[in-house]
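Tokens in:
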């Protein structure tokens, strides 16, 4: 999928990668069908453990099909600020910094990237930090998310500086 250039009035939206999730759902459903057909051919007698394991694949298949139909927005970045699950994390006037980090997990086979957003609140001297999880099936890369944050932060500073001068 081509990268859409950002503009001052655009939005950067991170959701599920529908193609990837649909492929995963189809793959797990095919594994389930293989187990079911094997069980049917044996008339549900003399079944080995493989048939049962393949039939368990129905659960992740259903979960991935549900994810594919879901229109959930994980992160939205636009001229007003950074949103997580459609809730404003911070506006650009209170934004301090953002970077990508990885959550430390013992015995994990997946990446555990997070977007760390540092910001301040009115009347509070100390800054805050929000850790926004990035999924393995999202439609934008970690680098693209960080680029969008930098783009809109730069746009805010430029427009704010030009209105001050």
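Residues out:
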């Amino acid at each position: 999928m081509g990268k859409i250039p950002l503009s001052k009035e655009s939005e950067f939206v991170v959701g599920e990668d529908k193609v990837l999730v649909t492929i995963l759902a189809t793959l797990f459903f095919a594994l389930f069908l293989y187990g079911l057909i094997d069980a049917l051919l044996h008339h549900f007698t003399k079944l080995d453990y493989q048939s049962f394991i393949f039939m368990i694949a129905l659960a992740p298949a259903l979960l991935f099909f549900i994810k594919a139909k879901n229109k959930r927005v994980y992160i939205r970045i636009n001229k007003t600020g950074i949103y997580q699950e459609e809730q404003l994390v911070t506006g650009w006037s209170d934004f301090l910094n953002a970077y990508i980090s990885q959550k430390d997990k013992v015995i994990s086979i997946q990446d555990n990237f997070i977007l760390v957003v540092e910001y301040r609140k009115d009347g509070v001297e100390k800054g805050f930090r929000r850790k926004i999880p990035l999924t393995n099936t999202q439609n934008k890369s970690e680098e693209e998310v960080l680029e969008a944050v930098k783009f809109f932060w730069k746009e805010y500073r430029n427009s704010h500086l030009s209105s001050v001068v």
